[in-house]
Amino acid sequence: MANKKKTTIKDIANVLNISAAAVSKALHDDSRISEKTKKAVKQVAKNLNYQPNHLASALRKGKSNLVGVIVPRTNSNFFSSVIQNIEEELNKEGYNIIITQSNESYKKECNNIDTLLFTQVDGIIASMANETVNLEYYEKIKSKGIPLILFDRGENDLNVDYIGINDYDSSHMIVDHLVQQNRKRIAHIGGYKHTRIFNNRIRGYVDALKKHNLPQDNDLLIESSLTTEDGRAKMIQLLKLKDKPDAIYVAGDYAALGALQVLNEQNIKVPEEIALVGFGNEPFTAMVTPTISSVNQHSAEIGRLAATTFLEHAKKEVITQSLNKKILNADLIVRDSSKKN
Amino acid sequence: MANKKKTTIKDIANVLNISAAAVSKALHDDSRISEKTKKAVKQVAKNLNYQPNHLASALRKGKSNLVGVIVPRTNSNFFSSVIQNIEEELNKEGYNIIITQSNESYKKECNNIDTLLFTQVDGIIASMANETVNLEYYEKIKSKGIPLILFDRGENDLNVDYIGINDYDSSHMIVDHLVQQNRKRIAHIGGYKHTRIFNNRIRGYVDALKKHNLPQDNDLLIESSLTTEDGRAKMIQLLKLKDKPDAIYVAGDYAALGALQVLNEQNIKVPEEIALVGFGNEPFTAMVTPTISSVNQHSAEIGRLAATTFLEHAKKEVITQSLNKKILNADLIVRDSSKKN
DNA sequence: GTTTTTTGCTTAAACGTTTAAGCAAAAATT
DNA sequence: AATTTTTGCTTAAACGTTTAAGCAAAAAAC
């Protein structure tokens, strides 16, 4: 019963005594094939349980209909939601996606790029690892002539598309909100400056302070890897200051969680004594006590836009990689950790 | 400057005035090619920036070196960790993985199977959606003659490999622990019985109660979809009982979170009045207040085993799909929600 | 110095499609 | 009725590899 040999286009051709080419055309509804033949071919295909060999057609057409996706990790709600929407959008057009994770490692990321190129993907949609400082390795993708679309982490000066939120404005939103809550000493636990989006958040923070005539204190601006662990460390560092902050804006939710843990442990009242705002709107921000205010990055929209941007390139014959930045506005979700009491 | 045309094996052959076959063999270190030629070929390959065309070799060899992975979702720590370990293990042997999500939908899952088969994967590693009641559609995979390995959700009577934890024993562990904390009325918010692993947890719960001579009360055993929302609903239902439970064992962490939220909202002291134990050891169980006791499912080990099980099949010439269940013991992580006070 | 073995390649076919080019028969146009 | 156009196919080549088979030259064995 073991139907080992897969049925090919030739098998169908043999049954009907026509050429393989005719079968191929019939299956693709070529106008030069009679309706009668098309029906017959499709019937036989069904009977023999024919499944097209994707490798063969991809080889012949020079196009795999696969799109590679590189993310730092999938176990974050943001990335998993982006991925889901990319997939949905691309599936509609007959593309499938290959997801790879860099685990925040530059080396792994380079590996992933090689893997995807090796698999002959038709395009790559990526968000960079924390470690990734420059986009040199990504040049490899461009030099292959396949579309590259970056999102979230990965704003760039390369001639490459980018989808993200307005980080600079988001910082303003947060500082505005905290000032409204009568906060005077607002600290910022930011990401590494070398990553553009984190640098934008820092710039936004600094400019917003100026706007409100709040003095900028170097002790209150700290760079961090934004892990929960590092959030703890940087919070402890801030609490050692003589002149403590009365609000903390953390550029990532995981680090904000770490900060909150320290505050809770030291019985510092949040938000009464110190208000806290995170970034990313990870689901756990609504789970912890107190719930953490955070910024919603519109993951679904980012995913959809990344996909459609790829499709625009794919549909063009000529590959014209043009700088095409799409910047969305984010929403501040105010929760207990920064709410007026 | 646009190096549009990719360099092929033939280009290398032309440069060196040897045949394409010789180049192919040289690149694969065939013993019948001289060291001198090999060196030359590799040098030229490097110079021309040669990248093998995976599609062509896959087509010729009848083997794509791709393995498909199907998970209900990636934004859970369990699945993302399993995936990461599958990938690591398979990469070592030259395989790459394609990750797809079912979003807990049976229809999407069937779609994913088709997609993966279409992409000519060499095997599929999957955990089933909540909705998936039977493995009928998975027969398609078996009938193609490619290895299928199920993990976590997907224990089965099919002749298919399975990797998972001992759910029955885990329930015993949890009940034993709660009894040790002097709990007498232990409720269970379980998953749907039609899924084997949840049924096993239910059986373990029932048998453990018997073991400790605790009466089994039908009001205390509830089936649930195990979402946070449904966890809330089922908790509210339990609190309406005249004779309330003094401990709740929830078969999933997200539902346990919902239950905890309700308990907190109603100012019911956890664990003093009602103790709570979840399942899955999702990171947030250690983030919420109080922290939730849970069961660690050894995601890394499950991932590794799933990968090596696939590799065992792949290495064999003949596909002998034999029932090969690997059952791991899980660990109970006791946290505040069930700790003796 | 002849025979056998080994080395180092080449040739050609194959994997399953797609597609350009071509051609006979049928249909439409004159 | 002769010519042109359209229809419905076929043939053959191509995509970039891998691999079985083969063969001449070099090396080893006698």
- The total count of strands of chain A amounts to 12
Distance between the termini of chain A: 73 Å
How would the global form of chain A be characterised? elongated
Could you estimate the helical fraction of the residues of chain A in percent? 40-55%
Number of helices of chain A: 12
CATH topology of the largest domain in chain A: Rossmann fold
Regarding quaternary structure, what we see is homodimer
Query: In the CATH hierarchy, what is the architecture of the largest domain in chain A at level 2?
Result: 3-Layer(aba) Sandwich
- Chain pair forming the biggest interface: A-B, 47 and 47 residues
**SSE order of chain A in H/E notation?**
HHHHEHEHEHEEHEHEHEHEEHEE
Q: Estimate the mean pLDDT confidence of chain A.
A: 91
Number of domains of chain A: 3
Give the percentage of residues in beta strands of chain A. Answer: 5-15%
Report the CATH superfamily of the largest domain in chain A: Response regulator
Category by helix and strand content of chain A: alpha/beta
- The CATH class name of the largest domain in chain A reads Alpha Beta
Largest sheet descriptor of chain A: 6 strands, parallel
